[in-house]
Amino acid sequence: NTVDVNGIITSVMSTFKLKVEKYGGTIEADLEAEDAWVKVDEMHFTNVIFNLLDNAVKYAREDVPLSLFIRTRILDNDKVEISIQDNGIGIKKEDLKKIFEKFYRVSTGNVHNVKGFGLGLAYVHKIIHDLNGTIRAESELNIGTKFIIILPLIKNK
Ligand code: ATP
Ligand code: MG
């Protein structure tokens, strides 16, 4: 199974667009990696992008509108980098190490009170690693979070 990275991102983005804009937020993309094909099941890859956008919406700050930025670019001619950046509540350093673990959820305090099983990122991590890819997160509390995925390309014209 092969998928066009930008194609999946564009379609998942469109499912979030109305929801984000309804609350005054924006969702933008710079999909530079044209014709970037990866060997992944379409449903799984759709779920990966969905989970990351879902988290960005769930963990948005309440005092500023959500600004979501998605970027794709080709690296070294044989890999694609996908980055998803939000301006949400952010994740503390101690927590950042654990977010890809099954059932891990940052202790919410009164910052946010949203439901979840703590499974989304564990799933994302597994799918990406099964493809010989990598995923990492950079975050700053109250500033935002950026997830960066790197996947090997099977074809890049
Ligand atoms: P599920 O995805 O299973 O519904 P979840 O969203 O709590 O539940 P994950 O997606 O695995 O679980 O995320 C783990 C934890 O990492 C979240 O509970 C949240 O605390 C934190 N987190 C994930 N994404 C973000 C983000 N974009 N901004 C801030 N915190 C995040
Ligand atoms: Mg989640």
From TrEMBL:
Which top-rank group of organisms is this from?
A: Bacteria
UniProt keywords (A-Z) are: Kinase, Membrane, Phosphoprotein, Transferase, Transmembrane, Transmembrane helix
Signal peptide positions on this chain: none
Please report the stretch or stretches of sequence annotated as the Histidine kinase domain.
1-155
Q: Specify whether Protease is a keyword of the entry.
A: no
Q: Which GO terms fall under biological process for this protein? A: osmosensory signaling via phosphorelay pathway
Any one GO MF term held by the record is: phosphorelay sensor kinase activity
Name of the featured protein: histidine kinase
Originating species: Coprobacter fastidiosus NSB1 = JCM 33896
Please state which portion of the whole protein this structure contains, as first and last residue out of the total length. Answer: 364 to 520 of 520
